[in-house]
Fold this sequence. Notes:
Its EC number is 2.3.1.51. The structure is a single chain. Helix content is 28%, strand content 15%. The protein is an alpha/beta fold. The strands form 3 sheets. Strands 14-13-12-9-8-6-7-5-4-1-15 form an 11-stranded mixed β-sheet, sandwiched between helices. A two-stranded antiparallel sheet has the order 2-3. It has a two-stranded antiparallel sheet with strand order 10-11.
Amino acid sequence: MSSTLALSQHKDEAAAPLPTPPTLSVSGGSVTGMDLEDPRNNGFWLWKWLCNWTSTSPIMLRNVEKKILSYLKLPYRGFFVDIGPAVGEADKVWTISMNTESPEVPLVLLHGLGAGIALWVMNLDSFAKERPVYAMDILGFGRSSRPYFAKEALICEKQFVKSVEEWRKEMNINDMILLGHSMGGFIASSYALSYPERVKHLILADPWGFPEKPTDSSNGKQIPLWVRAIARVLTPLNPLWALRAAGPFGQWVVQKSRPDIMRKFQNTIEDDINLLPQYIHQCNAQSPSGESAFHSMMQSFGWAKNPMIHRIKDVRADIPITFIYGSRSWIDSSSGDVIKSQRGSHMVDLKIVTGAGHHVYADKPDVFNRYVNETCNLYKGKEIKSSPATIPLVLPQRLIREATESDEDEVDREPNPSTAAEGIEIATTTTDTSSTSSRRGSAATTQAEAADLDANVKPK
């Protein structure tokens, strides 16, 4: 299996020498080359025609993602991680990293359905101040490869888990704090069941797929009209099929159907709020590989065929779990209470963010970021003291910088205004973790596959 493929984000930087003949070419202001996932496995002529109809383009997705991430204050690196034949023949996972020099336990982020790395833009700076942070486009989504997943729910779930594990191996991360939102929380939980030795703490933000589907939906939490419409009418289809059916009007569909998404980010991406619907359109107008996998795992839009509520109790007893729910979310938060009663309050922390909906990380980012950082701080070396009952902390060596070109944007970014209103926290408890020793292996030296000649463009 080949090493990580790193890309440069430096402005006006020349391409690094490549170990293989391919080169980059610039045409019409866009860069084409090996910094984009090769869609050869989707090369059927009908699919090419559909791509033209949906106005999708890996280059457009790359460019709009860079514009959104240009609002970050801290530097980041973007690169493909070659995970080999995890699901398809040669899968690659698009990843960004921040503060990889920190010796702290890394935080790894898994997004939800139809999302991508850029939607963490209001969280990444806060998370990366004192620890390494990695965010990936889950296989089948965003800029990652889009292989064909199995149709059987459990097999499909295990394929997602395998892709995360292969990614971890390539990144040479020994253990991590794993944070998943919505569908990402479902995958993160399944990963913790399969690889408990790699998870120091499991943070689940409004996780999907936990409760059992009620026999009468009216007995559960009130579901918004748009969710019920999808569940009852569109269940035989992929959830976001209408966006692709709209073709070149897909961005307009996002703008009109989900204006709330745009409002969540308007304080951060104030120069061009239309970047959000453009990004969501580009993420989901491509081959619906991951979306089809989600469809295979769901019983209907709001519930999983194999609910996690029946399995999460089997997560290794020494792995703490933190749930972060939005008080206004359509996700049923009662699962958190059930799991807390099963595992004991000292191993499960339940937090409710007042006024936040399902996208709790964007609705109240300041509160969400504080909750996540408080959890991560439990594993900071300087806060863990030796005692006869604990193992002394052994700090890992500092990460090895890549010998090849970095993908970091070293240009100082202008500070952006505060991105969130204050939230009120309720129903919180302190998680008592029995794990007091952590160690992360140094990141594997990455190989520069191509230099990205685009400058990070500030949105107008």
